[in-house]
Amino acid sequence: MEGKIPLIVKWSGKEYEVYISEDDTVADLKREIMYKTAVRPERQKLLNLILKGKVSDEECKIRTLKLKSNFKIMMMGSLEQDIEEINTTPANLPVVVNDFDFPDMEMPIEKQEVYLNKIAKRVKDYEIKMLNDLRPGKKLLVLDIDYTLFDHRSPAQSGAELMRPYLHEFLTSTYEYYDIVIWSATSMKWIIEKMKLLGVDKHPCYKIAFYLDSAAMITVCTRKYGVVNVKPLGVIWGKFEQFSPKNTIMIDDIRRNFIMNPRNGLRIRPFRKAHINRYKDDQLLELSNYLKTIAERYNDFSTLFHASWESKSKKWRNNKDEKDHKQEDRRDNSGGDQTES
């Protein structure tokens, strides 16, 4: 179209071409995007479209953004019908089955052959693209993205605004002890884009070994959650013999993702409402201390229960602080005695 700039909007795994003039505003752009995707402007988060200064969408002219032709905009947003479905209680819910209706000796889900066969198939068929070499002697840390490292639903002008506080400090600290893997229940292209937005993909202080996407997950049927997709660590263990339940820990804000590996999962509080909580959320600082401590103290993670990890971390840190103070006191007293003599 003459006089207009072509832009590419990436949303929900697809790309949409929109045209906008330099005299239009960001609000006009969002309306054009709505015509293509049906996502209302107030639901759109244009993550890599950075507005300069405190200007509104209605005030910000496209020319001030200096966008080149075919610039790709990463958008997050939900359709109204999807939001309505989530907020509506489903009809014909299945009858809730009492646990006591099942035999006490029922085989645990993580040991059922049908699911172990699914894992074996993922090990055989799922292709992992290595980003960086694995390091001998390191333990394995598997991290979720959405609501664990990143608030993917709050409105923002940049990925940095939605990043969980202390993310880079956390990854730098844990990289000393762990090889780091990112596993998200989404497509690989979205994982790659999010890691770029957060500045994780090429950070100088740590490296990510590889990414896993939704295709590496399996479906299981549970009493509590029904039919759900989960992240079986056996997929990684089947491909890399140096990793096992003894040296692996997975961090996620959704507990059911640990169903196949209940002893290796640590649930972190979800990071939502980034604009409010980024000034007071310190989960990654506490988690960094916990992961460092267990890496130094334990050779077998499968003996640990991570449910009360926060209280353990604070207790360990307080004990260390108390020990350090006692050592300082002893040094001071020793120095004083020597002076007097």
* Computed CA radius of gyration, to the nearest angstrom: 24 Å
Instruction: Tell me roughly what share of residues is in helical segments.
Output: 25-40%
Instruction: Quote the average pLDDT.
Output: 85
Strand content is 15-25%
Please, what is the CATH homologous superfamily of the largest domain?
HAD superfamily/HAD-like
**What is the string of helix and strand elements?**
EEHEEHHEHEHEEEHEEHHH
Molecular shape: globular
Which structural category do the helix and sheet elements fall into? alpha/beta
Q: Termini distance? A: 91 Å
- Which residues sit in consecutive blocks of at least 5 with pLDDT less than 50? 96-105, 328-341
CATH architecture classification name of the largest domain: 3-Layer(aba) Sandwich
Return the CATH topology of the largest domain: Rossmann fold
Count of folded domains: 2
Q: Sheet with the most strands? A: 5 strands, parallel
Please identify the top-level CATH class of the largest domain.
Answer: Alpha Beta
Order of neighbouring strands in the sheet with most strands: 7-6-5-10-11
The counted number of beta strands is: 11
Number of helices: 9
Blueprint of the fold:
Elements: E1 5-11, E2 14-20, H1 26-37, E3 45-46, E4 71-76, H2 80-86, H3 113-125, E5 139-143, H4 167-175, E6 178-183, H5 188-198, E7 208-212, E8 218-222, E9 226-230, H6 234-239, E10 248-252, E11 265-267, H7 274-277, H8 283-297, H9 309-340
Parallel strand pairs: 1-4, 5-6, 5-10, 6-7, 10-11
Antiparallel strand pairs: 1-2, 3-4, 8-9
Helix pairs in contact: 4-8, 8-9
